[in-house]
Design goal:
Elements: H1 11-23, E1 29-33, H2 40-52, H3 78-84, E2 91-94, H4 103-113, E3 123-127, H5 135-146, E4 152-158, H6 166-170, E5 173-176, H7 182-190, H8 197-206, H9 211-216, H10 220-236, H11 250-261, H12 267-284, H13 297-305, H14 309-327, H15 332-345
Parallel strand pairs: 1-4, 1-5, 2-3, 3-4
Helix pairs in contact: 1-2, 2-3, 4-5, 7-8, 11-15, 12-13, 12-14, 14-15
Length: 346
């Protein structure tokens, strides 16, 4: 981590944050939303560094509104280094403990915020994975947001606003972070000596827009696991021979839907793998060089030749509808059963 340039594919959020710094008009509560592993927490830490960077400043270091804020931190001064190492007393990071942020953590925060900042111009509280707050913790935090201490801003990170108390969301300025593009992930991963260009493409497609997920897959054992998982998904879903799906027993498809519904944590990744496979069958018909699963070229060629374009597009739409319904908190098993019925009939 250094400055905002270290964050991939988040031009709009970074533009908003640097504008705040330039105009010295920072909301007292910010909410960064988006999937895991796309730079929300890193952006919060860099923003805290920019608010307090002393790289180009001499003189007094007490809280002072006349000292200019840096639109990008130097990363080298003592303040930046301590914030980056999570050892600065005025940059407070709160994380879930055993998957939950409890009221005791927020009460402790209240006691800290009752005191003046030790040395920072702007004290920054970063609540990572704020969706992990239980209701009591959320209500306690609400009181802080409604009566924010001087020289203090709060930054919450969460996957989506629906996981937070509406009253908390309404009092924060939301900044939406987008999934990282597949191309950006490919370029980043291609710099790794441990990966071939082919594997970089495969990981970028399976990471579903998350850099942290892509990095976790770089290890040979993890990459082997994901390739095995991809094989299982494509074979057991019947998508390795999509033209023959209509002849598969409905009971077997519904049973597979049930198995997938029990894997809620990784379900978005599973659906993305299936959708990417079907996308490759479409792309093969027009430009085979652009397929993602290049290590499965022969299988893609055969499957693509057995099915028409209209049917493939219908199947992709069936998966997209299921993804949308699941994000809207529909019954997961029912959404998957409907999806497989559509895959069979389209």
């Amino acid at each position: 981590m250094h400055g905002f340039e270290s964050i991939l594919d988040q031009k709009q959020p970074i533009r908003i944050l640097t504008t705040f710094l330039h105009k010295r008009a920072i909301p007292h509560a910010l909410l960064f939303t988006g999937i895991e592993g796309i730079g929300k927490r890193t952006a919060a830490m860099v923003f805290a560094m920019a608010c307090n960077c002393n790289g180009n400043i001499t003189g007094k270091k007490e809280p002072d509104t006349e000292i200019p804020l840096q639109q990008s931190p130097c990363g080298c001064c003592n303040t930046c280094r301590r914030i980056e190492s999570e050892s600065h007393p005025d940059v407070i990071l709160i994380k879930p403990v055993r998957a939950v942020i409890r009221i005791a953590q927020i009460r402790s925060l209240c006691q800290t915020l009752a005191l003046k900042p030790y040395e920072a111009r702007i004290r920054v509280v970063i609540i990572s994975d704020a969706q992990a707050m239980n209701r009591e913790a959320g209500n306690a935090l609400l009181k802080i947001i409604e009566e924010p201490p001087a020289h203090t801003i709060l930054i919450l990170t969460a996957t989506q606003t629906s996981d937070l108390l509406p009253t908390v969301v309404s009092r924060c300025l939301q900044i939406r972070f987008q999934p990282i593009s597949r191309k950006s992930l490919e370029i980043f991963l291609a710099k790794s000596d441990a990966l071939s260009d082919e594997d970089a493409v495969i990981i970028a497609s399976m990471a579903n827009g998350s850099l942290s997920k892509a990095l976790s897959m770089i290890k040979p054992a993890n990459l082997k696991y994901w390739k095995t998982l991809r094989k299982w998904l494509i074979h057991d879903s019947g998508l390795d021979a999509p033209a023959s799906l209509s002849s598969r027993p409905i009971a077997s498809m519904l049973a597979f839907a049930e198995r997938l519904s029990k894997k809620k944590k990784n379900l978005p990744d599973f659906l993305e793998v299936m959708k990417t496979w079907l996308r490759d069958l479409v792309i093969w018909k027009f430009n085979p060089k652009l397929i993602i699963n290049k290590d499965l070229t022969q299988k893609i060629q055969y499957a693509s030749q057995q099915i028409d374009l209209e049917s493939l597009i219908s199947k992709i739409k069936a998966i997209e509808v299921a993804e949308k319904d699941i994000r809207a908190n529909a019954n997961t098993r029912l959404a998957l059963e409907v999806m497989f019925l559509r895959l069979v009939t389209n």
